Write a sequence for this structure.
């Protein structure tokens, strides 16, 4: 503080409530209203009353449950479960503690244990909307979407304004591609609770998927206004800025997210990805290695870390990171694609090709795998295979100009002039600013020379 300010505003003190006994009327007991100190017996009576209410005791059901919640917030799930179990022992009717045990198991992805705990909870509380919501989320995580929808709707049958279940139902509909239904659910959430930041955030995510980026930014800012401590909104806002090419604004928002939730592995992983895009590979490595240390089971962090290792020239570490990510999530198309490319660069053609094909088997609309696998085939003189693959890609992703351009070049090389011209014209229609493609189209139209593979 400014010394001059302190001179004119000296520190003042009030009578302590700690050393000289509680002041009557100041504490929860609300004694006589006299200004006289409470005598020894009165102080003991007050202390016993506070203990009976659970304010001062350390072994009450509520105190154990509250400590468990703090531990769960720090990611210390096993310790949290221990506290919740102590809460149940202290009060057999404390249903919230058993629910929290199930939540901790859910966070650990111990789904069977979570379901068993919820079954016991439902015996004591048969119309538990919280249990139905959690069962729905477990089913959704495991891909049992119809069952998840039943649980969420049952929770809403018990309480139509139960915002957590309605938000969960919106997430389910979004995952099923039913975006308009998802938006309706999220809108109903914020109509009930104007400060439900996650619902605003989820609306923003859908607007981002729809390409309505300015609307997404506005909704993410609404989410931040509703709850400035909700890290997810900052992270998603950062991803929109990243998509718009404003990497500086994206970095600022990722830092805002991590300031509020330094243990959020997904945010740290995305931040590492941004640093990779900015060419700051050593910083990206540090962030992604932190993410892996925080959650060794998070496949995306290992996938991104593999890409960073590749740029740092650490080829063995790169391949090891991709293999670990693929073992954690076998249906992760991007990691199979990246592993395939790394193997091809290392000279392992057979396994590299197999990994690229696996990526397409997982996601037939994964454009980079078509491009890189086709390039591999064409470079090795397997022109017909490459053209067939690119034709499949053009059917699956008709709006991708690069696939259309590669298909046109492959067909031109094979001497299939009309189809080549059609593919190249489609590429130009999708992306007009391609001078090389335009020159090729003009060359074909003018009949200026035969294609390399044309018959004499």
């Amino acid at each position: 503080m400014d010394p001059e300010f302190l001179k004119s505003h000296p520190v003042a003190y009030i009578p302590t409530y700690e050393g000289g006994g509680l002041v009557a009327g100041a504490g929860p007991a609300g004694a006589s209203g006299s200004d006289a100190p409470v005598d020894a017996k009165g102080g003991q009576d007050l202390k016993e009353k506070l203990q009976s209410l659970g304010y001062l005791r350390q072994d009450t059901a509520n105190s154990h449950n509250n400590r468990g919640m703090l531990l769960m917030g720090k990611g210390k799930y096993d310790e949290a479960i221990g506290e919740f179990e102590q809460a149940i022992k202290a009060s057999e009717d404390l249903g919230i503690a058993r629910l929290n045990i199930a939540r901790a198991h859910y966070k650990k992805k111990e789904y069977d244990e979570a379901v068993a705990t919820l079954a016991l909870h439902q015996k004591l509380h048969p119309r538990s909307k919280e249990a139905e919501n959690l069962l729905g989320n477990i089913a959704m995580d495991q891909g049992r979407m119809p069952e998840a929808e039943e649980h969420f709707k049952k929770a809403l049958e018990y309480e139509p304004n139960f915002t957590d279940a309605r938000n969960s139902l919106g997430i389910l509909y979004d995952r099923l591609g039913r975006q308009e239904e998802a938006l309706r659910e999220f809108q109903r959430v914020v109509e009930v609770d104007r400060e439900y930041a996650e619902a605003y955030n989820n609306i923003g995510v859908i607007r981002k998927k729809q390409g309505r980026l300015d609307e997404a930014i506005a909704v993410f800012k609404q989410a931040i206004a509703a709850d400035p401590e909700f890290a997810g909104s900052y992270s998603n806002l950062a991803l929109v800025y990243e998509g718009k090419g404003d990497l500086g604004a994206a970095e600022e928002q990722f830092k805002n997210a991590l300031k509020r939730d330094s243990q959020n592995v997904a945010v740290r992983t995305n931040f590492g990805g941004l640093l990779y895009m900015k060419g700051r590979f050593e910083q990206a490595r540090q962030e992604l290695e932190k993410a892996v240390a925080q959650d060794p089971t998070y496949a995306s962090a290992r996938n991104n870390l593999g890409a960073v290792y590749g740029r740092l020239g650490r080829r063995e570490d790169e391949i090891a990171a991709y293999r670990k990510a693929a073992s954690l999530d076998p249906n992760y198309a991007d990691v199979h694609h990246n592993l395939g490319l790394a193997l091809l660069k290392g000279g392992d053609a057979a396994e590299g090709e197999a990994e690229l094909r696996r990526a397409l088997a997982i996601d037939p609309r994964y454009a980079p795998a078509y491009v890189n696998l086709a390039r591999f085939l064409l470079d090795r003189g397997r022109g017909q295979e490459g053209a067939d693959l690119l034709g499949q890609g053009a059917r699956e992703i008709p709006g991708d100009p690069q696939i259309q351009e590669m298909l046109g070049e492959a067909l031109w090389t094979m001497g299939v002039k009309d189809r080549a011209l059609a593919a190249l014209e489609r590429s130009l229609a999708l992306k007009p600013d391609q001078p090389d493609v335009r020159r090729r189209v003009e060359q074909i139209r003018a009949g200026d020379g035969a294609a390399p593979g044309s018959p004499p």
Q: What stands out?
A: The chain has a mean pLDDT of 87. The chain is about 70% helix and 0% strand. The domain at 194-259 is CATH 1.25.40.10 (Serine Threonine Protein Phosphatase 5, Tetratricopeptide repeat). The two ends are 90 Å apart (CA to CA).
